[in-house]
Write a structure and sequence with these properties.
The protein has a domain at 63-203: Butyryl-CoA Dehydrogenase, subunit A, domain 3 (Up-down Bundle). Helix 3 (38-88) runs antiparallel to helix 8 (181-200). The longest helix is centred in the N-terminal third of the chain and has 51 residues, at 38-88. It has helices at residues 2-9, 17-21, 38-88, 91-106, 114-127, 131-148, 157-177, 181-200. With 205 residues, the chain is mainly alpha-helical.
Length: 205
């Protein structure tokens, strides 16, 4: 293209494609684009329907996998809460034993009043009681499972996110009230699972 311009019009200088392309109207289509006829439009519609159907099928497949993963995680969390509840039943007896041991070391020369020790143990056990928290946690997890099992097509992401906030709050309370290492370890497991679920539900509607 540049050679004929040089030969015919004496154009000098280096070839600058950007400058050429910036000239308005320098290029134009050789033939006008023909409009689609009825058959062409029908073909496009069929192709679009196929693409949308495939997209919907893929979204349903991914949604099913995500739902299964979330149900598994919530069910596992529910089992962890059950373990915490079992461990909590031993707390009063453990506290009573610890108090007796400590008092015995401090006042070995005096006789201990078992009733007084039991009273102190009961007071500390009451402060460390996590029954209400475990009951609420179980309720929240049951609600989450119910939401994940809904088939009406209603959005559940926001509702699950709210439940996760409540689960996180109850779990933090358990960890702060309990001095039992096993319970605290399971509370950390709950928090880790809740965080993974929070990441997953960002893909939910």
């Amino acid at each position: 293209m540049l050679r004929p311009l040089r030969e015919e019009y004496g154009v000098e200088g280096e070839w600058d494609l950007r400058a050429v392309l910036s000239v308005p109207g320098i290029f134009e289509a050789a033939d006008a684009v023909a409009s689609l006829d009825d058959e062409g439009r029908a073909a496009v519609d069929r192709a679009l329907d196929l693409a949308l159907t495939a997209l919907d099928a893929e979204r349903r497949r991914e949604g099913g996998l995500l739902q299964s993963d979330l149900v598994e995680r919530v069910t596992r969390m529910r089992g962890t809460v059950g373990t915490i509840r079992e461990l909590a039943t031993d707390i009063p007896a453990v506290l009573q034993e610890k108090i007796a041991e400590r008092v015995q070391l401090l006042v070995a020369q005096f006789a201990l009043d078992p009733a007084r020790i039991a009273q102190e143990a009961a007071f500390l056990a009451d402060r460390a009681d996590i029954t209400e928290e475990t009951v609420r946690l179980t309720g929240h997890l049951d609600h989450a499972l119910a939401l994940l099992g809904e088939t009406g097509g209603e959005p559940v992401g926001k509702r699950l996110e709210f439940l996760l906030q409540e689960i996180h709050r109850e779990t933090n309370t358990i960890a702060s009230k309990s001095t039992d290492l096993g319970i605290n370890r399971h509370a950390l497991t709950l928090k880790a699972e809740a965080e993974k679920i929070r990441e997953q539900i960002q893909n939910l509607e």
